[in-house]
Amino acid sequence: MATLDPVDVGDHICWMAGPGEDTAGPARAFVADGELFGDMVLVLGGAGEVPRGPLSWGSLFNEVRRGTERAAREGFRALRVLADLSGLAGAETRPDVLARHELRLDALVAESGAILVCRYARAVLTPEAVDQVAGVHPQHLGRGPVGPAFRLFHASRDRWSVSGVVDTEGAETFRTALGELLSSAPVLHLECGDLEFMDSAGMTALAGVARGLPDRRIELHHANATLSRSWSLLGFEHPEIPVELKQ
Fold this sequence. Notes:
Number of strands: 11
Distance between the termini: 31 Å
Shape: globular
Structural class: alpha/beta
Helix content: 25-40%
Radius of gyration: 18 Å
C-alpha cells in the first residue's frame, strides 16, 4: 500500500514507520476518513517522538473488543483503530511473541469487521522482528524492506491463508508463525490458493512444525501442482509428518 486511503472494513495493516517519516499527516487523513465513512475512531498512541500506545497487548485486545461492540450498538459502520505498538515491541521482544499477538489480532479484526492499523517504529525492532510483524499482516505500508515475500493471515472461522512466496529468506518467519497457530488448534487449515511458490526451506519449516507437535495436524488446501509434486519428491509425504495436502 502507498497510503492508508484504500483501507476498508476488515483490513489489518502493518505500518512500518522509518526514521524521519511523516506519521502525523497520514494519521490525520486516516482519522478524517473515519468521520467521512461513519466509523467510530479509536487512536492509541500519538504521533510525537515518544508516542504512548496501549499499556499491554491485553489492554489492546480489550479496547478493540469493547470498541467493536460499542460501534455496532451505536450504529457506526465499523471501529477504525490506529494503534502505535512500538512500546509493546521493543528490541527485546522475541519474534514469536509478536507473531502470537498479531495473529490473534488478525483473527479478531476479521471476525469483528474492524479496521486496524498497527504502527511500528522500525528503529525499535530487530530485523527479525520487522520480518515477523510484516509476515503476519495481510497488508503493509511504509518505505524500506517489507519483510518476507509471504503473508499469513486469517481467512475464515477456522482457516488461515498463505500468499506469495515462502523461500529460504522467509522460512524461519514462516516456521514461527505456523508454530504459534498450531499450538492453539488441533488442526491447522491453510488455504494455499494464492501461494505462488514454496522452496525446500519452506517445506522443511512446515514439516518441522508439524513433526514437533505430533498430536496436531496441518492441512494444506488448494496447493498448486508444483508444491504437491515437490512435497512428495522431497520425501515429506511421510506418516511421521502430520501434513496432508488436499484439493
